[in-house]
Amino acid sequence: MFAKSSGRWFNLKVMSRVCEICEKRYLKGNLVPRGIGKRVTRRTITKQQPNLRVKRIEINGNTATIRLCASCLKRLKFESKKTQEASQE
Fold this sequence. Notes:
The chain is α+β, with helices and mostly antiparallel strands. 21% of the residues lie in helices and 38% in strands. It has a two-stranded antiparallel ribbon with strand order 1-2. It has a two-stranded antiparallel sheet with strand order 3-4. A two-stranded antiparallel ribbon has the order 5-6.
């Protein structure tokens, strides 16, 4: 589905860059270069995006495609390995 806004076409199905598990978003900050001495010459706004991955995960027998950050993926792998070891013992 496409919508026209101020002369441009936008795709409405675009997902935001947010982890679906921990809701991690971008970090926003200022790059402040110091010019002559300690005087601030300008500011540049910077954004740090989260390290997102798109993975298919089986939940209660259903396969779901979710966006998750690398730290959540690492935690899911650790927890699944831990539960497999506990079930074998």
